[in-house]
Amino acid sequence: MPLDFRRFNGPEDSVSYKIYTKDYLKTYDEQLKDLYDENGKRKDGRELNEARSMCMFCMFARTDMVSQAKGSAYVELRKTKVVCSVFDPREIPHQNEFRQLGQLYCEVKFAPFSCPRKRRPYVPDVEEKALSVALRQALEPAVCRHFFPNYQIDVLIYILEHDGSCLAAAINAAGLALANAAVPMFDIITSCSVAVIGNKMFIDPTEIEEHIAKNSTEVNHGIITMSVLSQLKQISDFTQIGSMDVECVTKVMEVLLKECEIIVPNIQRVLVVDVVKNFELKKHLEAETKKREEILKKKMDEWRSLLNGQ
Amino acid sequence: MVTDMKDVQDFKLKPMKCEFNFLSKSDGSAILSQGDTVSLVSVNGPLDIKMTSQRIDKSTLEVLFSNKNGKPSVENRYKENIVKQTCEAAILGSLYPRTGINVTIQELEDYGGFLACTLNCTCLALLNSGVSMRNVFAAVSCAVDNQGNVILDPTHAQLQTSTATMTFVFDSRDKSLITCFTDGCFSQDAYREALERSRSASDLVFAFYRDIIRKYCNVIG
Amino acid sequence: MSEVYKLIHPVKHFNDYISIKTRLDGRNFDEHRNIKLNVNSIKTADASAVVKCGNTTVVCGIKLELAVPKAEEPDLGFLITNVELPALCSSKYRPGPPSDYAQVINNIVSEIIKNSKCIDLKDLCIVPDKLAWVVYCDMVCIDHDGSLVDACIIALIASFKTLLLPSVNYDTETEEIKVETNERINLKIHGLPVATSFAVYEHFQSQIILLTDPTNYEEEMCGGNGSNLIISYNKGLLCGIQKLGGGSLSTENNEEAIRLAEQHTIAVEKVINACLEGKGTNK
């Protein structure tokens, strides 16, 4: 890898200390056994088919996270933490033909410390690029792109901590941020994911569950993320990693559709809170500035009279 | 064209030698040596730059710093920023809107106080290029040794034993502080003493500027 | 009305506020914003801290790695600090490699940490010439609203304070490495460096005004790139003064800045200590 001159670099051959710990040498079967106990409960106490968004305290979402951005959102699914900000539409640099539809520029970036296994590189890697593309494809059907031809909206995602289903979290956050930025949209977009290992389905998987699902040797294994426009009953994106038979996929889709519906009221609640809060805040700010403006006005009048007097 | 500078008042700076128009193709250039430290600066401008970096209210200053091995690094960006911020305060950029002024710096020898030497050299090169300036500026470096004494314009040997180095840049009008950057740990008193001593010593640099400009003006006639 | 005035006559608008001795957000000149600090909120990092100074938000995460020390410095470990300014933190930045400004901030933060000598690199060495810790500290700015260096330093120091190094067994004969994550020791921190940013505003060509803990808008109005004056303290000693751009300082301004920075340092130290006591240092 070429040396990065724009940052401080550590020694080239450094390795994470985790590869020297005992846990690192666990076999696949041992890891699989660790995922759930005899009662079928997962490590964090959930049932296999229980999503994190279901329990009130696990999903946390808010808007107006980034003051400098037009719209922003923060979504927390237990440990997965995602920040999203959306900026004003801007002209597309270096383009020579007229575009009927506005463009969405999506970028997903992992923090260097976000993954439990290894340090993330600074330059975008394959996974980040794939996530960016998936995010764009999911959002494009939801945004009224014909309202801003020849312009582009930047949707930037930063993943602070990765504990599974980060694409779903990113799509949910992006939907909230776009709404917060007052970008016209057709519908509320929600997303959820499922990891499949053999005959077991893990709804809203954690990082370790995803990891095992990806490397599993079973016939049915992999991760499916689906995003849904709930009112329109449309699926805006369907991303699958791994291989599954048709029966399994249809079953997963049914489950995901249901899960996505469940998230909608949560998102609606956040948006309503956001509108109310902004309204209150504006009133408060206006009252406060009025006081200061009053003094300023006096000063202005003073100057004006001085100018006219001369 | 060489001017020496020794034993003025009781403050001593390392001997300074300067030559203008060292590079024939640039609009203005200067090579300055302070003791063993040598720096070469060329100034080009005002010139045409690409639309995206043009500013409607003033000229855009671009500084390129390259050290001896020529490799880019984070430290170089920081040094560029120091020179850029210092020059921006001094140049009357509003006279040249929508243009660019390029300053290119090459490190030749670094035996302590390199950035101070570079800043002085940049000021001379700007004077040589004829860009309009609000004021000139002078950089002076100081070191604090392990006993806490302040040494003005330290030599290479003195720097090896010092705990901190500071560089100050003053403007020529009211000797106020334009730029300052430090390295190492030091007490408040040491900082104050270094600041005041450097402020007085900046007179020597300004006198040197006047001297060298006078000599060149005579040659031009 | 006020918004229009601000857009059309930004300088005049700003001047008017300054002449009635208030700032746009209603603060006094020497008042700093509230600091909120939270440690160890990110479990994938070995130590982490989130800090909010007003709107400015910085997340710092530390990852530990092992490497062979450099041949020329066999008894020193590595401390790598990097500041990230991703495009989402402000509309000023575009996606891609770090901007020049990000590199400048990166250099300032790393110099302050180095100069304050708050971490002895010898403590990071496990076996001289064979094995040493590499401490990667990544500070990510989530929201850039001025005084970035202050927030970065607070986040970094708070994470250092909570960092626990796992114990390592190194067999000199077989060169086998064993890491015990359950037995951890605190990293020694010498002092508590704190940086204080100021914007230096030249009011009507003569009067110099120091704005403590400036917002992004104030930094832009004062000219220059970011904060104009950054003063850092560690254990009562100055460990870095950077003055770049903005108005020029007279001796009195300088004294005032140093006095304000000293006060701010004490206040910030209290915040950090209160946060760490409340949380406890164990994970």
From TrEMBL, chain A:
Example GO BP: poly(A)-dependent snoRNA 3'-end processing
InterPro entries, per the entry: ExoRNase_PH_dom1, ExoRNase_PH_dom2_sf, PNPase/RNase_PH_dom_sf, Ribosomal_Su5_D2-typ_SF, RNase_PH
Compartment annotation: Cytoplasm; Nucleus
GO molecular function: RNA binding
Pfam families: RNase_PH
One cellular component term from this protein's GO annotations in UniProt: nuclear exosome (RNase complex)
SUPFAM superfamilies assigned to the protein according to its UniProt record, in alphabetical order: Ribonuclease PH domain 2-like, Ribosomal protein S5 domain 2-like
Phosphoprotein found in the keyword field: no
Exoribonuclease phosphorolytic domain residues: 59-184
Keywords per UniProt: Cytoplasm, Exosome, Nucleus, RNA-binding, rRNA processing
Membership in a protein family: Belongs to the RNase PH family.
Descriptive protein name: Exoribonuclease phosphorolytic domain-containing protein
From TrEMBL, chain B:
Magnesium in keyword set: no
Cellular localization per UniProt: Nucleus
Single GO MF descriptor: RNA binding
Pfam families: RNase_PH (PF01138), RNase_PH_C (PF03725)
GO term, biological process aspect, one: rRNA processing
Domain Exoribonuclease phosphorolytic: 13-131, 136-199
Chief localisation class: nucleus
Cellular component annotations (GO), alphabetically ordered: cytoplasmic exosome (RNase complex); nuclear exosome (RNase complex); nucleolus
Gene3D superfamilies reported in the protein's UniProt record: GHMP Kinase, N-terminal domain
Family according to the record: Belongs to the RNase PH family.
Name of the protein in its database record: Uncharacterized protein
Biological source species: Bombyx mori
From TrEMBL, chain C:
One GO term of the biological process aspect: U4 snRNA 3'-end processing
One Pfam family from the record: RNase_PH_C
InterPro entries: ExoRNase_PH_dom1, ExoRNase_PH_dom2, ExoRNase_PH_dom2_sf, Exosome_comp_Rrp42_subfam, PNPase/RNase_PH_dom_sf, Ribosomal_Su5_D2-typ_SF, Rrp43
Domain Exoribonuclease phosphorolytic: 31-162, 192-263
GO annotation, cellular component aspect: cytoplasmic exosome (RNase complex); nuclear exosome (RNase complex); nucleolus
Cell compartments where the protein resides: Cytoplasm; Nucleus, Nucleolus
Coiled-coil stretches noted in the UniProt entry, renumbered to this chain: none
Gene3D superfamilies registered for this protein in UniProt: GHMP Kinase, N-terminal domain
Alphabetically ordered keywords of this record: Cytoplasm, Exosome, Nucleus, RNA-binding, rRNA processing
GO molecular function (one): mRNA 3'-UTR AU-rich region binding
Broad class of the protein's primary localization: cytoplasm
Similarity comment: family membership: Belongs to the RNase PH family.
Record-linked PANTHER family: EXOSOME COMPLEX COMPONENT RRP43, EXOSOME COMPLEX EXONUCLEASE RIBOSOMAL RNA PROCESSING PROTEIN
Protein name per UniProt: Ribosomal RNA-processing protein 43
